[in-house]
Specification:
single chain; 627 residues; alpha+beta; 4 domains; 4-stranded antiparallel sheet; 50% helix; disordered N terminus
Length: 627
């Protein structure tokens, strides 16, 4: 409730028009509206009323938000279990009492100020960053709201904001509180610990039939079979209707010739270059080469190595200096060029290796080209196939009949649960699996459903072929799993008992090292452990357990690795060297101030609810939820 209050008091309007406008107005902006007499109101606070229509609108929007968070459409029963109906009611009551208080205080907003607030809303800005009337009308049309409704609700929010700001403006966390937080966050500890593995209580004996039966009965729900559903589906993407056999050899050859560069590997050459300080020096070196000296000799005379003069192996268009490329790709292997004027001076060039251009023959790439052409043609006719399938279903054909006539493939899954599991413990692999399973468990047998989009070009048609109700499994169906679970639980129980006995010995004064030596386990020491530390042995709950006891005390916690217990003793506790208010991070200080403001708002709303009699009409709420 307080988060919604704060949101309504600050950035409410900007956010609502960026995706939550209807929800936010439904919760906060309509609390002062009155539709009909008392029987049409779900609640009243003084003279302020919330109608059935308002409540249902707020409820539906909150349900949509929660459904998106869970990734599935929530049922009415699930919404009730989550308390959505009560959350919405609480929010509407808070808004109503604030509106009533604003009315009693005769707070208002001038038309100029309302216009200014509307113009400042970035959701209504055009490309030039200024208010745009067309953008304003477009955004409101998108959410189904009239301009007058927006302005009325925007006015209510602004007036309510005056009350909230008056109560919380300038509130800051006291220094004494910040010092306490700094001490809390900055404290570090030294702890001795020992990881106790499950092996110290193993082997666990096989359970008796009576133990297995009793365990099964006590945990029967764990082994219940979920509801399964049979599915038939057709995936319609270009690859599903591509017909390579229909692609003529002439089309393949024509595509090959058009794209010949794609199948051609350009000629490459291994190039060496020797750069000189002047043209005369380069000519003198060239004369020596012509007289019989080797290129290697000239390189050595220049005080360089062959690695220094290697430019690399390149195709002609990959050589950065065009002058070098022109010369190098006209030399024979081993030939030294005339003096070349390059980008970085005068130089001699030698090509030591020539790799001729290579063209893949049509026979090597024809299958790939044929597949590409088939996919392109399939993409061009995919929407026609889609229309033909829909027309066939509309004419009364079954999925199988329509698929057979259009040469589409119907895939079937005999049984799958809502998480993708199968009765034998396996898992399915379905196209658009999350969306498909969500939809499958919302429909019924033999109903023709709207297709699911696959990316930008595909479709998934589906039907439910069977519904296998959830049921309790018999023990014989899951005996092996029950036995394994019993042994795991028994091992955990025995390990916890043994670990507690060891903790008591440690607490009574037995040396930790002696206990570790007896069990042949490693005694570890952690220094500088803080509340937010990450540790290989201690998970977050383990670190919290370490900070939950005083110095010199012992404790047990679940190990970071499954099936282990950790016995620990806190040996040292150190306060931070500096614990002033300024040592608390700015973000934390802001969060603490926000928390204090929220607490103050909570008290304000509580006082207003006591001041203005709030009446809730449960019959009206039931009526609102009945349609």
């Amino acid at each position: 409730m307080l988060d919604t209050l704060r949101q309504a008091a600050t950035t409410w309007v900007a956010k609502l028009l960026l995706g939550l406008l209807i929800l936010s107005f439904a919760v906060w902006g309509i609390s002062g509206s009155i539709f009909g007499g008392p029987g049409n109101n779900v609640l009243t606070a003084g003279d302020t009323a919330v109608s059935i229509t308002d409540y249902r609108l707020a409820y539906d929007r909150q349900l949509n938000v929660m459904s998106r968070q869970f990734g599935t459409r929530l049922t009415r029963e699930q919404a009730t279990a989550l308390g959505i109906d009560q959350q919405v009611l609480s929010q509407l009551i808070a808004g109503a009492v604030l509106d009533e208080q604003a009315s009693q205080m005769q707070l208002g907003l001038s038309e100029d100020r309302l216009a200014q607030l509307t113009a400042e809303d970035p959701a209504f800005h055009g490309p030039d960053g200024r208010f745009d009337r067309q953008q304003f009308e477009y955004v409101l049309r998108q959410v189904g709201m009239r301009p007058e409704d927006y302005l009325r609700n925007r006015e209510k929010v602004a007036i309510r904001q005056q009350i909230v700001e008056a109560a919380t403006e300038g509130l800051r966390t006291p220094d004494a509180y910040l010092r306490a937080v700094a001490l809390y966050q900055g404290e570090d500890r030294t702890v001795e610990l020992m990881v106790i593995p499950r092996s110290i209580v193993e082997p666990i004996p096989e359970p008796t039939d009576a133990q297995v039966s009793a365990y099964f009965e006590a945990n029967k729900q764990r082994y219940a079979a979920p509801e399964y559903r049979g599915i038939a589906y057709i995936k319609l993407e270009p690859e599903d209707i591509a017909d390579e056999a229909a692609v003529l050899p002439e089309a393949v050859e024509a595509r090959y010739n058009d794209d010949i560069e794609r199948y051609t590997t350009a000629e490459t050459r291994r190039i060496e270059q020797l750069v000189f300080g002047s043209e005369d020096d380069a000519k003198a070196a060239l004369d020596k080469v012509r007289a019989g000296s080797s290129f290697e000799d000239i390189v050595a005379e220049q005080g360089r190595t062959m690695a220094d003069v290697l430019l690399g192996t390149f195709a002609e268009d990959r050589v950065a200096d065009a002058a070098i490329a022109d010369v190098a790709f006209n030399l024979s292997a081993g030939e030294v060029s005339d003096v070349v004027k390059g980008n970085f001076g005068h130089l001699l060039i030698r090509v030591t290796e020539v790799n001729p251009a290579n063209v893949q023959p049509l026979s090597e790439v024809s299958d790939k080209i044929r597949s590409e052409i088939a996919l392109e043609e399939a993409a061009n006719v995919l929407l026609d196939v889609y229309d033909s399938y829909e027309d066939a279903r509309a004419a009364g054909e079954t999925m199988q009949e329509a698929a057979g006539r259009l040469r589409l493939t119907v895939e079937t899954v005999e049984a799958v649960d809502s998480r993708g599991g199968t009765p034998d413990g396996g898992e399915v692999d379905l196209p658009e699996q999350s969306k498909l399973l969500s939809e499958v468990f919302e429909t019924d047998v033999s109903i023709e459903n709207s297709p699911i989009n696959i990316g930008a070009t595909g479709f998934l048609f589906y039907e439910v072929t069977d519904v296998i109700p959830a049921r309790d499994r018999a023990l014989d169906e899951v005996r092996d799993q029950v036995t394994a679970d019993w042994r795991d639980d028994e091992a955990a129980t025995q390990l916890a008992t043994r670990a507690e006995a060891l903790r008591k010995e440690l607490a009574d004064g037995r040396p930790f090292a002696e206990i570790a030596e007896e069990l042949e386990l490693e005694l570890k020491t952690r220094r500088g452990l803080k509340r937010d530390s990450e540790d290989l042995d201690l998970d977050r709950s383990g670190v919290a357990a370490v900070f939950g006891v005083a110095r010199g005390e012992t404790g047990l916690t679940r190990g970071a690795n499954d099936g282990t217990q950790i016995l620990f003793k806190v040996t040292e506790v150190f306060e931070p060297a500096s614990a002033g208010p300024d040592t608390v991070a700015a973000e934390t200080r802001q969060q603490l101030s926000q928390g204090l403001a929220d607490d103050l708002l909570d008290q304000l709303v509580a006082e207003l609810q006591a001041k203005y009699e709030v009446r809730v009409n449960q019959s009206a709420i039931n009526q609102a939820l009945s349609f």
